[in-house]
Amino acid sequence: MSLTLVIQSPRLDSKELQELAALAGASSFSQPTLESARLEQADPASRDAISACCQALGYDFAFVDSSLQLANFGLLVSDMDSTLITIECIDEIADMQGIKPQVAAITERSMRGELDFSASLRERVSLLAGLPESALEKVYKERLQLSPGAEQLLAACKQHGIRFMLVSGGFTFFTEKLKQQLGLDYAYANQLEVVDGKLTGRVVGEIVDAAAKQRLLIEKREQLGLRPDQVIAMGDGANDLLMLGEAGVGIAYRAKPVVQAQADVAINVMGLDGVSRLFA
């Protein structure tokens, strides 16, 4: 299989690209956009050297199958918090309760893989008991923002007939609104219990944890009649690793170190539009 080394950055320097091409043993390189370059027939044995060099230069890099095009894929599965959107919704809800530092610290440890996700979610949600449901709407309207390049990636998926599935350890209040706003095909998340207009501090039903994310990807892939290599998955936390492992291409987006170490591709510099530029 021939590999293409894809280099991406808001600022690419032609001399630095030539040096990377030589380091990768590439036969040729092109620059289809101002922000991306493709180095053909790259040697995968150069990965460590390329990684060190790109890190120093502030470039994203990925070794991809040269024959792959975006249209080869049929399903893209994405995490929500800190992936499709810039915030961790539960941390911002907690801010309405005046306890963001405590909750954010638990969130961070959970995303690094230091805490059991389900137990940590229940612990964090319990701290939200008594908060008016209107606080969720306030977070959505005032704090939730799409990650850079999200709309471009979604447009590329629609153009090529790729279904987009949001699978989140967050909450259905946000995933359903995003599904409607962005025209997503599928959305799955946890449901907060609300009684008399206030959060009870409990989650209704099964927790969408790492295993559930993996299962939902497999179920949707089989339902659509797709092979594993026709699926892209992206996320940022340890609870995304099983899901990323089920995809043909697993992408760590501005992710925790444990995720970057295991994913096929890490995007740290570019926005989500960098995903579609991986493929010719």
UniProtKB/TrEMBL annotation:
<feature type="active site" description="Nucleophile">
    <location>
        <position position="79"/>
    </location>
</feature>
<keyword id="KW-0378">Hydrolase</keyword>
<keyword id="KW-0460">Magnesium</keyword>
<protein>
    <recommendedName>
        <fullName>Phosphoserine phosphatase</fullName>
        <ecNumber>3.1.3.3</ecNumber>
    </recommendedName>
</protein>
<dbReference type="GO" id="GO:0036424">
    <property type="term" value="F:L-phosphoserine phosphatase activity"/>
</dbReference>
<dbReference type="GO" id="GO:0000287">
    <property type="term" value="F:magnesium ion binding"/>
</dbReference>
<dbReference type="InterPro" id="IPR004469">
    <property type="entry name" value="PSP"/>
</dbReference>
<dbReference type="GO" id="GO:0006564">
    <property type="term" value="P:L-serine biosynthetic process"/>
</dbReference>
<dbReference type="GO" id="GO:0005737">
    <property type="term" value="C:cytoplasm"/>
</dbReference>
<dbReference type="Pfam" id="PF13284">
    <property type="entry name" value="DUF4072"/>
</dbReference>
<dbReference type="InterPro" id="IPR036412">
    <property type="entry name" value="HAD-like_sf"/>
</dbReference>
<comment type="similarity">
    <text>Belongs to the HAD-like hydrolase superfamily. SerB family.</text>
</comment>
<dbReference type="InterPro" id="IPR025138">
    <property type="entry name" value="DUF4072"/>
</dbReference>
<feature type="domain" description="DUF4072">
    <location>
        <begin position="5"/>
        <end position="50"/>
    </location>
</feature>
<keyword id="KW-0718">Serine biosynthesis</keyword>
<keyword id="KW-0479">Metal-binding</keyword>
<keyword id="KW-0028">Amino-acid biosynthesis</keyword>
<feature type="active site" description="Proton donor">
    <location>
        <position position="81"/>
    </location>
</feature>
<dbReference type="InterPro" id="IPR023214">
    <property type="entry name" value="HAD_sf"/>
</dbReference>
<comment type="pathway">
    <text>Amino-acid biosynthesis; L-serine biosynthesis; L-serine from 3-phospho-D-glycerate: step 3/3.</text>
</comment>
<dbReference type="InterPro" id="IPR050582">
    <property type="entry name" value="HAD-like_SerB"/>
</dbReference>
<dbReference type="Pfam" id="PF12710">
    <property type="entry name" value="HAD"/>
</dbReference>
